Amino acid sequence: MVTTAQPNISFYQASVPVFIRMLTNLSSLLAKAAAHVQEQGIEPSDWINARLAPDMFTLARQVQSASDAAKGGAARLAGCEIPSFPDTESTFDELQTRIAKTLTFLGNLHPEQFEHSGERPVVMNMRGSEKSFTGNDYLFQMAIPNFFFHITTAYDILRHLGLAIGKKDYLGSFE
């Protein structure tokens, strides 16, 4: 078996730029959705409250959850306080504001804050029980997969409602 050297990548690089990129892409998706509902004369709340299945979160809650996953994930790894945003957004503009606040928080984090994040213990209350992770396991087994779940589900709701979007919209440009 041939092995190749693994590049050194920091926990900052593996998290914050990923969260920023995908939240920025989500913001673009929401802008397209807002323009579409306005052009088509669709009640915006029909889309904000849409869900893929009765037991799944609405579009608004998927965006809130993506925001929570990004800010919570980054804060836990950086060893700083997680900003608290009330889950009250009910319009496209309010969801955009939530994303902007999350992006501001992420943009104010510095790589030095993530030194030794892999060994840092992360303890979370998940559905009434306490779960403990190393920072490494938390980032790669919980934070990133959870974040992408909510981003993808928001995309899927918009696509299901008929918004003309595709993989390029999800991934964004590579400039």
UniProtKB/TrEMBL annotation:
Lineage, broadest ranks: Bacteria, Pseudomonadati, Pseudomonadota, Gammaproteobacteria, Enterobacterales
Superkingdom, taxonomy of origin: Bacteria
InterPro entries: DinB/YfiT-like, DUF1993
Name the record gives this protein: DUF1993 domain-containing protein
A Pfam family annotated for this UniProt entry: DUF1993
